[in-house]
């Protein structure tokens, strides 16, 4: 199971990177098109969709690699028991918030599909299509937070804490 989850998080990171490359290609095509006298229809729309996908696909991978901002200035001085409870509470609150976001992201995709919403750009795109990566990314973050909550409850070190020592100034 651990191997499967790690592959899921890595795939999430790769998908995020792929979306960044896609943005680069779209913008480059748009620049070249302007120089050669043609337009790339809805380039701004598609690069915006790719940006949203890159952002949300990158959440789970970044969380697992300890890349999200954590304020440890105060809690690093706490005793182990107090810090454990604080970490547990934060993970529970994060899981509840991200579960809420996951539910409504999926609901948003479903409603866009049912009501056949389309974009208003030059190229009409069913809105549910660019919304799917957003929902997938937030669900992957939800899985990552649940994974770390389980690790915290079973006495293992959560993934984000593994990289915590790399960011302290005393290591510089």
Automatic annotation (TrEMBL):
UniProt KW keywords: Cell inner membrane, Cell membrane, Membrane, Transmembrane, Transmembrane helix, Transport
Pfam family, one: DctQ
Presence of the UniProt keyword Transmembrane helix in the record: yes
GO biological process, one term: C4-dicarboxylate transport
Any Gene Ontology CC annotation: plasma membrane
Entry's Gene Ontology molecular function annotations: transmembrane transporter activity
Transmembrane annotation, as ranges: 12-40, 46-63, 84-107, 127-146
Subcellular location: Cell inner membrane
Membrane topology of this protein: Multi-pass membrane protein
Tagged with keyword Transmembrane: yes
InterPro entries reported in the protein's UniProt record: DctQ, TRAP_DctQ
Domain named Tripartite ATP-independent periplasmic transporters DctQ component: residues: 23-152
Protein role: Part of the tripartite ATP-independent periplasmic (TRAP) transport system.
PANTHER family reported in the protein's UniProt record: 2,3-DIKETO-L-GULONATE TRAP TRANSPORTER SMALL PERMEASE PROTEIN YIAM (PTHR35011), TRAP TRANSPORTER SMALL PERMEASE PROTEIN (PTHR35011:SF10)
Quaternary context: The complex comprises the extracytoplasmic solute receptor protein and the two transmembrane proteins.
Recorded family membership: Belongs to the TRAP transporter small permease family.
UniProt name for this protein: TRAP transporter small permease protein
Organism name: Amphritea atlantica
């Amino acid at each position: 199971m651990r191997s499967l989850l790690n592959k899921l998080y890595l795939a999430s990171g790769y998908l995020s990177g792929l979306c960044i490359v896609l943005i680069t290609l779209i913008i480059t095509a748009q620049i070249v098109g302007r120089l050669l006298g043609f337009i790339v229809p809805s380039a701004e729309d598609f690069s915006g969709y790719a940006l949203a996908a890159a952002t949300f696909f990158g959440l789970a991978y970044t969380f697992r690699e300890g890349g999200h901002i954590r304020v440890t200035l105060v809690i690093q001085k706490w005793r182990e028991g107090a810090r454990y409870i604080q970490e547990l509470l934060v993970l529970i609150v994060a899981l509840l918030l991200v579960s809420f976001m996951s539910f409504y992201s999926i609901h948003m995709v479903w409603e866009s599909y049912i009501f056949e919403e389309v974009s208003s750009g030059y190229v009409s795109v069913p809105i549910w299509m660019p919304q799917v990566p957003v929902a997938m990314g937030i669900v992957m973050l939800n899985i990552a937070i649940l994974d770390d909550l389980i690790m915290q409850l079973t006495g293992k070190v959560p993934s984000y804490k593994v990289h915590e020592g790399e960011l302290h100034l005393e290591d510089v």
